[in-house]
Design goal:
The protein is α+β, with helices and mostly antiparallel strands and about 675 residues long. A hairpin with a 2-residue loop joins strand 4 and strand 5. It is built from 27 helices and seven strands. The protein has a five-stranded mixed β-sheet, sandwiched between helices.
């Protein structure tokens, strides 16, 4: 039989023919595509003509099409719908793909051609975009170790291959711990829980052939911790949640984290850097660990002060319920929810029926239509899972993109939420229309109901999707979200602001049973409580970012857990708050190096997103056409075509300070 992954796809819009692809196809397809890629590179290197931008830089961009196609399908499916075969493929092919990448980046003849073009760049009459692509490509090769010789070059390959293995192991261990732990509960244990929590627990149990259960899916465990009056069960569930990746045995991630940090330091040292943070941050907006720490500490102090004050109030509530001893981490969400109900007269059980998943999807589409003129039409096409659905995206009748949404939690899906592209936008060597995927982990229901935070997550990921869909560049290398890590979260975090626009909620926050709009009084309460418990939220995030930075700024620690404890003690971490991501399940940092020494980037981007939305507020219209056009022109369509600071300044006229962020979080003095 022919391998569908290696054929030309005649499906609607060039979507992968998911129904024709079997797990057995991936290995042979990867092998064939890697061989084809290497042959294409060798042909480029063998070109007798003098190196030029066309025959070398653009020539390199013509290579690897088959491998890109296979890899994009596989990694999208492996993250969203894993199984034993796909996990085995990940373990086998992660190091093979790393070795393949190293073979290209360490190809001396190829690098000589790239360096030759780089050296003559001033005389080549390149466009601004071409000059940017040349700089980035040359820099990528240098940072990958292309300039290393002999043993240093060989060791760099070994280090990167081992890091690929470790990242895969870390991810699969975490998925196993999250998938395998359940806490069965009795009907009596459901007492005091809102109907939407009980429904989610029953659905999670049905998926496993059990009665109602608590799982380690955030969409189940967080509302359980918020609403369950049974302190012993909250404690059991919370401790299991906190021990993901640290349970001993085959799925323990602590030694993986230790080895990962040591290898990252060695990688940086091979390239002449003192530590990994110096290497990693060199190409980011922040530039140095010192600037990152300065931002994080500017936010930490007011956030910790707020959290400490909140803890005293919650502890008094704990005492009033007859419990001795201090407030614990498994108590915080429960008493914070009771306090929110008391102080803001806001009950999530009353609010949640107004946040139907389908209505929130419509809201995200409607905002994109009003801002950018995009229209979304459902597609009846075969996808990789029955939960996933697709839309054609058009503007003025012209095809812009395909958008796929995969929203429900399941045991085969890794935790969290993310945006990826099965196909990115480009105009060279051919015009390519993007296929963009949003993956979330919301609890199933009929209808599916979201928390307010869930709705924000949906808008956040759709902001990433807009960055991909509205991209308008020539070269895929700088398309969409191919920007500095501490800039990539700007479009996503900025888009969250439109969920808070009253007219959006008035139109789409419709009750699941009655269809009535959210009453203004309730709407005012929801918006008024938007910053409730912000001390807690900020502290758990900033603590994780500071630990990540400490791991990579300076010598790699011998014991990650000891280093984590030292950092938390040094900053005075409140007793009843844990890091948002403790080290053994800190997938942002250890599943790959995308956010390593870079978890701060959400907050760096938040400084900009608060300021960027203020631009709409200043003109008195969240849907101001002129401002939306500027946002698209300078941010969403520009990709990585210019330095991030230059793009933001073109949009706003200046770079912002931290004040807008503190004000937005309700932490300003």
């Amino acid at each position: 039989m022919s391998n569908a992954l290696l054929q030309d796809w005649t499906t609607p819009f060039g979507l992968p023919p998911f129904q024709e692809i079997s797990d057995e196809d991936f290995g042979p397809a990867f092998d064939a595509a890697m061989a084809e890629d290497l042959a294409e590179v060798e042909a480029l290197v063998a070109n007798p003509d003098a190196p030029s931008f066309a025959n070398t830089i653009e020539g390199l961009m013509r290579t690897g099409a088959a491998l890109d196609k296979v890899a994009s399908v596989f990694f999208n499916i492996a993250g969203a719908d894993s199984n034993e075969a796909r996990e085995a493929l990940m373990r086998e092919y992660s190091p093979k793909l790393s070795a393949h990448s190293s073979a290209i980046y360490s190809n001396k003849a190829l690098f000589d051609r790239i360096r030759s073009v780089w050296d003559q760049r001033e005389s080549l009459d390149l466009s601004e975009e071409q000059a940017r692509v040349l700089m980035l490509l040359h820099r990528n090769f240098v940072r990958a170790g292309a300039g290393l010789e002999g043993e240093a070059s060989e060791r760099m390959t070994e280090v990167k291959n081992r890091l690929a293995v470790l990242g895969t192991s870390f991810t699969q261990n975490l998925l196993a711990d999250e998938r395998d732990w359940v806490m069965e509960v009795t009907e009596a244990d459901l007492e005091g829980l809102p109907d939407f929590v009980i429904s989610a627990m029953r659905a999670a149990g049905e998926e496993r052939g059990l009665g109602p259960v608590v799982t380690l899916s955030r969409s189940v465990i967080v509302p359980f911790l918020q609403f369950s009056p049974k302190r012993d069960l909250r404690r059991k569930a919370y401790q299991a949640w906190g021990l993901r990746g640290a349970n001993g045995g085959e799925t323990d991630n602590r030694e993986i984290a230790n080895e990962t940090l040591a290898l990252r330091e060695e990688r940086a040292n091979l390239l002449g850097y003192d530590d990994f943070s110096g290497f990693k941050l060199e190409t980011e907006m922040a530039g140095t660990p010192e600037r990152v720490r300065e931002l994080l500490m500017a936010v930490w102090e007011p956030a910790k002060a707020q959290a400490d004050a909140d803890a005293k109030i919650l502890e008094d509530m704990l005492r009033a319920d007859g419990f001795e001893g201090p407030l614990e981490a498994w108590d915080w969400r429960y008493y914070a929810e009771k306090r929110r109900k008391a102080e803001h007269d806001l009950d999530e059980a009353e609010v949640k029926p107004y946040f139907q998943l389908d209505r929130m999807i419509e809201a995200s589409f409607d905002c994109a239509n009003r801002l950018f003129g995009l229209e979304f039409s459902p597609l009846d096409v075969a996808l990789y899972h029955d939960d996933a659905r697709a839309w054609e995206v058009t503007r003025n009748g012209e095809h812009v993109a395909i958008f796929i949404g995969d929203y429900f939690a399941r045991g085969s899906k890794r935790s969290g939420a993310w945006c990826s592209a099965i196909r990115a936008q480009r105009k060279f060597p051919d015009v390519q229309i993007p296929i963009v995927v949003n993956v979330c982990n919301f609890a199933k229901g009929d209808p599916a109901l979201l928390s307010y935070d869930d709705a924000r997550t949906l808008f956040h990921e759709f902001g990433h999707a807009l960055h991909q869909m509205l991209s308008d560049v020539t070269y895929e290398m700088i398309s969409g979200t191919s920007v500095a890590r501490d800039f990539v979260e700007l479009p996503s975090q900025l888009y969250e602001h439109w969920l808070d626009v009253p007219e959006v909620l008035e139109k789409f926050a419709l009750h699941a049973e009655t269809g009535e709009a959210m009453p203004k009084e309730l709407l005012d309460k929801v918006l008024g409580a938007a910053n409730f418990d912000m001390g807690f939220q900020t502290v758990e995030y900033v603590a994780s970012a500071l630990v990540d930075l400490a791991f990579h700024d300076g010598p790699a620690p011998a014991d990650v857990m000891q280093k984590q404890a030292e950092v938390l003690e040094q900053i005075g971490m409140p007793r009843a708050i844990s890091m948002r991501h403790a080290t053994p399940h800190f997938a942002h940092v250890f599943a790959g190096d995308g956010y390593s020494s870079g978890y701060y980037s959400y907050m760096w981007s938040e400084v900009m997103d608060a300021d960027a939305f203020a631009a709409f507020e200043e003109v008195g219209d969240p849907f101001n056409v002129d401002m939306a056009q500027k946002l698209e022109r300078f941010i969403l369509s520009a990709g990585g075509s210019q330095e991030a600071e230059k793009l933001y300044t073109a949009f706003r006229g200046r770079m912002p300070g931290v004040e807008a962020l503190l004000k937005g979080r309700g932490l300003a003095a």
